[in-house]
Amino acid sequence: MSLLPFVEWLSETRGSVALRESFHMYPLTESFHVWTLTLFVGFAALLDLRLAGLALTKIPVTEMMRRSMPWMIAGFVVMTVTGAMLFYAIPIRSYQNVFFRLKVILLLLAGLNVFLFHYGIWRRVTDWDLQGKPPRRARLAGFASLALWALIIFAGRMIAYNWFDCDRQPQPGWVNWAAGCVEAE
User: Fold this and answer.
1) Exposure class string for 65-96: b at 16+ Cβ within 10 A, else e
2) Is-contact 103 119, C-beta < 8 A?
3) Could you say which of 43, 98, 102, 105 has the lowest number of CB atoms within 10 Å?
């Protein structure tokens, strides 16, 4: 099942065209996306480093969470809204971009990591809150988050390059498959 017909329709909507062709709105949206990404990832990295037992080991994990969560939520909300707007502005190019697809997969994995952490090891945080070196599962969640967000940022940055765009044919078969390219007959 392909979402291509939907993204083709989406790209022709007035809002998509207006955002894509705007002299100010697209660059401002992209800037806010990056700014709030740094806000979110900066605080998440501090928390992840604490979970990994690599930094701020004298601060209770619950205190780190309490202080960083409002900033992380604010950054995440604005980052998500502006990310959706960036997709809305160029839906076909985004949908058929190998790095965009990789970024979506990595975001899903990062979300799964958060879910497993909060509904797993976090439920017993009172047992290990003050430990300089948290339990193995907490450390793994911290390391996984750090790695996933580094890869998400890399994939997001690579979206700007057109190395594997569908309109650059011929491409290897795996590129056409990974990008969802529809080859002309």
Assistant:
1) beebeeebeebbebbeebbebbbbbbbbbbbb
2) no
3) 105
Greatest pairwise CA separation for the chain in angstroms: 64
> Per-residue DSSP letters for 98-130?
HHHHHHHHHHHHHHHHHHHHHTTGGGGHHHHTT
Instruction: Name residue 101's amino acid.
Output: R
Please tell me whether the overall predicted TM-score, pTM, comes out greater than 0.85 for this model: yes
Q: How many CB atoms lie within 10 A of CB 116?
A: 15
CA dihedral for 149, 153, 158, 164, sign (positive or negative): positive
The residue assigned the tokens 């190019």 is 93
- Tens digit of pLDDT for each residue in 126-137? 999 998 899 999
| pLDDT averaged over 10-residue windows placed end to end, the chain, 185 residues | 88 95 94 96 96 93 94 96 96 93 97 96 92 93 97 94 82 87 67
Tell me the two tokens of residue 185: 């007959």
Among residues 9, 25, 40, the alpha carbon closest in space to that of 85 is found at: 25
CA–CA dist 59, 131 (Å, integer): 9
